[in-house]
Structures are given as C-alpha cells and as structure tokens.
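Suppose a colleague, Dr. K., hands you the sequence of a protein chain of 397 amino acids and asks what its three-dimensional shape might be. Before reaching for any lab equipment, you can write down a predicted structure in token form. Begin with the sequence itself:
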Amino acid sequence: MENPLEKLRNGELKLYALEKYMKADEAVGVRRQYIEEETGTSLESVGSYSIPIERVVVRNIENMIGCVQIPVGTAGPLPVNGEYANGTFWIPLATTEGALVASINRGCSAIAKAGGADVRIFQDFMTRAPVFAAKSIPHAADSIRWIEEHFSEIKEAAEKTTSHGKLKKISTYTAGTSVYVRMAYETGDAMGMNMATLASEAAAKVIEEATGLRLIAASGNMCCDKKPAAINAVEGRGKTVSAGVFLSDELIRTVLKTEASLLIEVNTRKNLVGSARAGALGFNAHAANVVAALFLACGQDAAHVVEGSNCITTAEAADGGVYVSVTLPSLQVGTVGGGTSIACQNECLKLLDCAGDGKAKKFAEIAACAVLAGELSLLSALAAGQLGKAHKELGRG
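The predicted structure, expressed as tokens, is then:
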C-alpha cells in the first residue's frame, strides 16, 4: 500500500484495518509510527519484539503497536506429588517485583527437602450465569421449576455449540423478579470462558422460549467472572485444588529459620484472623503474587488472578512439625487457546511440560504447589522478622 500514514491522517484508512492491506509486522510498524507522531512519544522499545505475530493480531489483540517485555525468572526445582503432575519442575515467573522469585525459590527448597508437595484437584468446571427477567415472583418460581425438570433438554442445546464442553450442573438464584441461572461446564484443556459463554447463550434461548422469561444478559454476574466474589470462594470456579506439605521442626529451623509454633501463629493471626477482620475473601499471605507471575509467564488470562487469589492457607501442628496447605477454590487455567500459543508463553508452558492437550490439570497442580512455596516462604520470613531485610537486600528498600 502506498502512503499508509497519509491515508491514516486524512481518515481514508482506519487504524484497526491495516492488517487487511499489509502483512502483520508491517501493519504494526505503521500503526506504531502513526501513534508516535500523534503523541510525540518514542516507542522504540515497544517496537522491539521476537514473537511471530501473524496469529497474535488475529486472536489475541487489536490495534497492536508492539510488545511490553516482563522479566521472567525461575524458581525451583519444585517436586510435585500429584495425580496429574508427578516430578520436579522449574517454575517460570514473570514479574517486576524484586524478591518475589527469590522468596518462592526458598519455599521450593523447603518443599524439596520435605520430599515434595502433595496436591489434588477436587472439582473442575467453568461457569456462566445468564440473567432473566420474570413477570412476577410466581413466574420466577414456575420458571425455576421448569429449569430443574428439563436439565437434559438444556444440556443438549448447550453442548451442540462445542465439541469439548459438557454441561454438568445448573444452580438457580433469584432477586425479586431477576432469575440467575448458573451453568457449570467441563471445558477440557481450555480455560473455557468463551466456550461456556456460547453454550450458555444457546441454553438461554431454550429457557426463554419454554418459560416466557426474558433474557437480559448472557452474563448476570452470578458466574462470577473477574471480580471478587464469595460464590467462587465457596462453590468454586475453574479448578478447585489443594496442595500441602509436612515440615519437620528441624527443617523449619534450618531452612526457614524460624519455629513451627511461630509459623502457625503468624498464619492464624495474619491469614485467618486478620483476613476475617478485614472482610477479605482470600485468607492467605500473597497467593495472588505467585498466580499473577505464573499467569503472565504462561499465557493465562491475567484478570483471573482475581479468582486465583481466593486462597485459604492453613498451618496445623503435627507430630514433630507442622502441616501447611493451600486451597485455591477458583483457579482458572488452560493449556490451549488464549495466550497459550504465543511463542514466549508457549515456551514457558513447555518448560513445565504443560503445553497443549491433556495438560490443564497438570498445570493447575503445579500452580497450586508454587503458591504453597510462596506462602511458606513469606510466612517464614514474617515469623523470623526477615521480610524487610530481604526486600532491602534485593533492591526493594
């Protein structure tokens, strides 16, 4: 195309349409140059990237002008004793927070010396909850009764939209004449949000036609997607996964530099009582730190860190030591789709042997164990009074 910048300036060409007329890298370069001229800002660093973007500009982003690079470190080795993840793993973590990777690394060391972390997945489903308007309270009640009695019909309509998704259960809620239908799906190795949305839209049409309810929105926020919500902490969303490890008194003293009784007290007064007093939904030290760094490195939807922070950390006295565990009721991960196919993120998934089909549950188990490592290290640092010192030494003072 001749003079694309001039065509952009005079409105003959739309900024978002460049890829229709030129190759992806060329389109990104022209768009970046246009934005540089419009704003007077150099975007030289943003324009320096190594990932192939032909697929990215179609599936992952609009109006691309380049990439932002985030440093990636590794923590480990982390031994995992799971049903899907069995072995020792190096954890890729993308972050700009100094001391974070070092902290997780110390937790990995403690877990390794303890023989590895045990981990299990308790449930696995993605939700979407359309909201309907009823004409009256009796109409709402009659409609819910119909939904409960016609699950198989709704299931058939939903599953026609996908070759992988399976509708497993439906829960209904009301607020006056508003009717919320929370549908839970198995979504294979995809995180599954788009899959659940399309399936729920098809299911909602069946419900609307049969009951006379009026569909207001495909999502009524009872799902509840990318927002802090008690329903996800209680009922789960994505993977509900728990990881735990027994630490002997000697290991706590030599590796974590504190005492079992202090570790338990910090967890109780900080993570449990302190979180309850604050009205928090997460009862943990910094689970979101680990989830965010792992999500960014491995091409997950970063907004789902909100649900990933719904973590409860427990520390219980046991003979000769303490048993520390984390439970993440709403860990939403996938190993296909979304950002998992972008070159850098795909490499990080491959580092964990978690790229592609059949790997999502494995990835979830590893993620939970990484969170456990992060919790162990921070709780120990707090118990030993080392938190400020560590941050100062690693450039965070």
